[in-house]
Design goal:
This protein is of the alpha/beta class. It is built from five helices and seven strands.
């Protein structure tokens, strides 16, 4: 299942350091405001048929208590401090823990039935590569479940664009246009796209692999 790959995230060492520092306080800032949106997004996972589910960019594991127990999960993150905080939250689930890169997944093609990308696509330096890798390891007919912040096509959002050169170095990008990212991964089709938070800046999106 596992295979060695390059790790593009290593090109941004400041991001790795910042997330190690953020890990102890991440939950205090993120957990409560986004709990309902996370729950709503994860309802896209089936609850009747067990499958293999990749949690790419698991962070501190805030999704784990919200997941159905029938699946076998693989939780991946590029930051050891985040993974360490996530492990206790997965105690009631079947979870394999992997230190790795969402832009260069160490898994074989077509290995997973579903992939969850929560608050990772707009964090990584190369969103298209993150989504392409998720599609690569997904079986045909499988789904990708996203929850993240995206600009709409044609949206100006000058403040978000202005802050991105700094924010992308230490935490996240704020200028990612989802439609442009999806265009680079033609094997995926849009199933649903719903506003979640902040007037639709955060969106819940479900994609299906068609080839």
């Amino acid at each position: 299942m596992m295979k060695p790959l390059v790790q593009p995230y290593r090109s941004n060492p400041l991001l790795r350091i910042s997330y190690s520092l953020i890990a102890p306080v991440y939950d205090l800032v993120i957990e409560r405001p986004m709990r309902a949106a996370r729950t709503r997004s994860l309802r896209a996972l089936p609850i009747e048929v067990a499958g293999r589910v990749l949690l790419s960019g698991i962070g501190t594991g805030l999704d784990l208590p919200l997941l159905p127990t029938l699946h076998h999960y693989t939780a991946l993150d590029f930051n050891a401090a985040m993974l360490s905080r996530a492990r206790p939250r997965g105690a009631s689930l079947q979870v394999d823990w992997v230190l790795g890169d969402s832009m260069a997944l160490p898994f074989a093609d077509g290995h997973f039935d579903h992939v969850v990308l929560h608050l990772i696509t707009a964090v990584v330096p190369q969103p298209q590569r993150c989504l392409s890798e998720a599609a690569r390891v997904l079986k045909p007919g499988g789904t990708i479940i996203l929850f993240d912040k995206f600009l709409r096509h044609g949206q100006i959002a000058p403040l978000r664009r202005l802050l991105t050169p700094l924010s992308r170095r230490i935490a996240t990008r704020m200028d990612v246009i989802f439609e442009e990212v999806l265009r680079e991964v033609p094997e995926l089709e849009l199933v649903s796209d719903a506003p979640m938070l902040a007037g639709g800046w955060f969106r819940g999106i479900v994609l299906r692999k068609i080839t």
